[in-house]
Specification:
This protein is α/β, with parallel strands linked by helices. The protein folds into three domains: 92 residues, no CATH class; 163 residues, 3-Layer(aba) Sandwich (Rossmann fold), CATH 3.40.50; 109 residues, Arc Repressor Mutant, subunit A (Orthogonal Bundle). Helix content is 49%, strand content 9%. It is built from 19 helices and ten strands. The protein has a five-stranded parallel sheet, sandwiched between helices. It has a three-stranded antiparallel sheet with strand order 8-10-9. The relative contact order is 0.08. Belongs to the ORC2 family. Component of the origin recognition complex (ORC) that binds origins of replication. DNA-binding is ATP-dependent. ORC is required to assemble the pre-replication complex necessary to initiate DNA replication. This is Origin recognition complex subunit 2.
């Protein structure tokens, strides 16, 4: 009973003075704690310390209780001030922590992203002006070389690997029998690789195709067209002398004639089937239809790195190619002879051959129109200010010669000339369209003399 009484008294004192060490005294001056410790085993002491949280102790501490500080149950005044200072410091720390916890962070102004070192490098170089040399080939005072002079100079400098190149090409010739067999089985052979394949195909033609019907197509020729190819097949292979209203009608006639005569075996040797004049979808579609026939066999070569992009899946199924890598390391001498160069001057014989080949595939009226323009240009060659024949004047001359019946017909024919690069049109200062043949007078004179002889 005595122990329970001590506990009740201790609890009441702790409730009245929270946060402090409580000492219980008896009426005789003996503390309650000393009397309680007398009942405990030796070595164990009782010290009552409040474990109530600071906020709860502050709420429980009433103002009227603090007036009892003078009683012998309250601590000294200095202890109260220290406790108050500690409470205020803890309260300030709690307010700061709560403010940091619940306060929404203010938005900081966005700063521009600093450019990286790579961006700074390109920015600095883009702002600076790049100067290049003006020493170009056009400013050379030396005249251009002709084809004969260039060929003679190149022949005087043989290749250092001539023997190895010849041995490599002899290895390719071992496939001639295999190619011939695959062509007869319904496949078509396509050659690719670095170097000109024209000599290799020419040796195949002379060794395997001399006794059969074959046709050679130079795809690198600047004036080659689908119409000229179809005319060669119609005239030289089928021996048909009639005319056709359109290439579609001519194509249908060729397909029908070859299907009706399966015994007629035709071999097409196409150099540079990816040439600039043969890359159009219409031309490749027509060649693919010819290659799909059982009695037409195609042996072709490509040189452009993106040549396979010319064919889609439908065209590839028509050609039915077998691809052969035939690197020859031979120069593209003939393939590049028709290209404009700053060092080489086109010979008159080459331009004359080009004119003759193209005009041979045109109608008589078309040849007459071109002849009329050539004659007028030769008549005006002594005029230094001659810039061409105007379209209206040319139309009147063609109409008087009964070559055309309307300006639409003439423009259609001029479009074909322009596609073959036979004429060039330009507008003068008065916005009038002028026509000009881009051939020197000497070559044009030789062409007219050859036409008169025929």
């Amino acid at each position: 009973m005595l122990l329970s009484h001590f506990l009740v008294c201790a609890a009441s004192e702790m409730a009245r003075a929270p946060g402090r060490t409580v000492t219980f005294c008896s009426p005789a001056g003996e503390s309650w704690a000393s009397r309680l410790n007398s009942f405990l085993p030796q070595g164990r002491k009782v010290r009552f310390v409040s474990s109530t949280p600071h906020r709860l102790r502050k709420r429980l501490a009433a103002p009227n209780l603090r007036s009892e500080s003078d009683s012998d149950l309250s601590p000294s005044h200095s202890e109260d001030e220290e406790d108050d200072d500690e409470e205020e410091r803890e309260e300030k720390e709690d307010k700061v922590a709560a403010a940091a916890l619940y306060r929404t962070p203010a938005k900081k102004p966005k700063k521009g992203l600093e450019p990286s070192l790579v961006e700074e490098y390109f920015t600095a170089h883009a702002s600076s002006k790049v100067t290049t040399s003006d020493r170009t080939l056009q400013k050379l005072q030396t005249p251009k070389l002709d084809q004969e002079t260039l060929a003679r100079l190149l022949d005087g400098k043989p290749s250092s690997y001539a023997d190895e190149i010849n041995q490599l090409n002899k290895e390719h010739e071992k496939f001639f029998s295999k190619w011939m067999l695959q062509l007869q089985l319904g496949f078509n052979v396509l050659l690719y690789g670095l170097g000109s394949k024209k000599p290799l195909l020419e040796r195949f033609r002379t060794s395997r195709l001399l006794g059969v019907t074959h046709l050679v197509v130079n795809g690198f020729f600047p004036s080659i067209t689908l119409k000229s190819i179809l005319n060669s097949i119609t005239v030289e292979v089928l021996e048909h002398q009639g005319s056709f209203r359109s290439p579609v009608e001519q194509m249908d006639f060729i397909m029908k004639s070859l299907r009706q005569d399966p015994s007629l075996q035709v071999y097409l040797v196409i150099h540079n089937i990816d040439g600039p004049m043969l890359r159009s979808e219409k031309t490749q579609q027509a060649l693919g239809q010819l290659a799909s026939l059982t009695n037409v066999h195609v042996l072709a070569s490509i040189d452009h790195i993106n040549a396979p992009l010319v064919w889609d899946q439908a065209k590839l199924s028509l050609f039915n190619w077998l691809w052969y890598e035939t690197t020859t390391y031979l120069p593209y001498a003939e393939e590049t002879s028709y290209e404009n160069s700053l060092l080489v001057q086109q010979s008159g014989a080459l331009a004359l051959s080009s004119l003759t080949h193209v005009l041979r595939s045109l109608t008589p009226n078309a040849r007459g129109i071109f002849r009329l323009l050539a004659e007028f240009q030769l008549e005006s060659r002594d005029n230094p200010s001659y810039s061409g024949l105007s379209f209206q004047e040319f139309y009147q001359r063609c109409r008087e010669a009964f070559l055309v019946n309307s300006d639409v017909t003439l423009r259609t024919q001029l479009t074909e000339f322009r596609d073959h690069k036979l004429i060039r049109t330009k507008k003068g200062a008065d916005s009038v369209e002028y026509l000009l043949i881009p051939v020197d007078p000497a070559t044009l004179t030789d062409f007219l003399e050859k036409e008169d002889a025929q």
